[in-house]
Amino acid sequence: MSQHAKLMAPSAAEKWSNCVGSPVMEEGIPDGDTTYADEGTAAHFLAALCLNENQDPVAYIRREICVTPDGDAFFVGQGATEARTFGVDEEMVSAVRKYVQRTQKAAEGGELMVERRLDISMITGEEGASGIGDAVILLPGELQVRDLKYGVGIRVFAANNKQLLIYALAAYHEFSQFADFERVRIVIHQPRISAEPDEWVITVEELLAFEAEIKDRAKLVLTAYEFRSNWQNGPDYSYLTPGEKQCRWCRAKDVGKCPAFDKAALESVIGAFENLDANTTPETTITEATEAIKLAEDPAVLADKFQSVPLVRMWCDTVEKRATAVALSGVKLPGLKVVLGREGNRAWSDAEAVEAELKAKRLKADDIYDKKLISPPTAEKRFGEGGTMANSKLWKKLQTLITRAPGARSLVPESDKRKEVDTNVAAQFDNLNDGSDLA
Q1: Residues 6+ apart with CB under 8 A from 169
Q2: How many distinct helices (H) and strands (E) make up the chain?
């Protein structure tokens, strides 16, 4: 019988493939706030419905979608009452419409399968394990796996996306006996962040090479799980490999259960002060630490330290959240106390009563109500591609009237897909002066 993967869910592949002990460390720890995940489930429900019924998402605007704790979704009135409710608003219609239209266009001349359950047991080694591909498309010579990401927090890219690579492998093994695929196209739609989906095309040979790698990692996960009693509470943490990608969504980290995460973060910080004199006194620590860092900061060393920043920052955030949660539960932490922060903004306790009072004074509408022009994002949701009142001619004109401040320059790893900024100050001044000197 098919079931969702227990230890190695494709959506968590980045975590368990990089840290094979993470499924064991997370065992028994419940998920935290699932509001955003449930909102994504609601959007996926609407998208699948529209693809299957060839319907425009705007047909369901103002309706409400319920999502149960088990991840089932349905319209209000069609199922259990114990569920979180999400309204189909302009933003959801616009985002889902972009995904639906592009997916339908991509499937022309081929076969589209929506919310396809895929057998991943031959990849992860878990009997009966499966995952669900949002859209699988079979085209002449090409296998496509498309995924809708409704979140806005973190941009997700198609290149080397392990979740979709696993889905692609499962789909390839299921359908390659009926079709001759030459390439695999992985597409991620994240319409609330980018109007254009991100794509990555690989050969079948490259896909099968990934299969060998992921299978090896999956075997280690199963080994870690089988022998967890020998290492989970002991000194051997060879199964644990902390890192930004794998630790970001790890529940063990969030509850302070993973000492390997603490150890990696602290070692990164201590490493920055490796040139400190062992006899440094408290009075000179800051000064000597600063000088020690300066001495060690040649470009290569500084770059190496920079790579540790995300993990250290993550550790700091985790410690702060964990300590706050414990303190708020009633546990007194030595040297710390809980206080009230700044009060929230003032608001009317009864807006209708205030409105009635003001109208009774026969005040003008302009003295009672604030009017505000819609913002560019709202205009796009209504008039842009996929909008509830889509009007390409109007939106094209409005785009010429939009301005935005340039983004701040920031330092990122070279793997980042954004274009590199020229930071050669001398060259910039030279370009400024070439033929442009004031008379």
Answers
A1: 120, 123, 207, 210, 211, 214
A2: 18, 9
- Token pair 């700091």 is found at 316
pLDDT confidence of residue 438: 43
H/E/C letters for each residue in 229-266?
HHHCCCCCCCCCCCCHHHHCCCHHHHCCCCHHHHHHHH
Say which residues have a Cβ less than 8 Å from residue 418's Cβ, sequence separation at least 6.
412
219-239 per-residue burial string, b: 16 or more CB within 10 A, e: under 16: eebbebbeebeebbeeeebeb
What's the token pair of residue 175? 């359908």
Chain-wide mean pLDDT for the chain?
87
Sequence-ordered list of residues with C-beta below 8 angstroms from that of 303, at least 6 positions apart, any chain: none
Structure token digits, residue 64 = 């409400």
Nearest to 420 by CA among 411, 432, 429, 428: 411
What pTM was computed for the model?
Answer: 0.80
* Contact by Cβ (8 Å): 110, 139: yes
State the pLDDT at residue 439: 40
Residue-level pLDDT at 435: 52
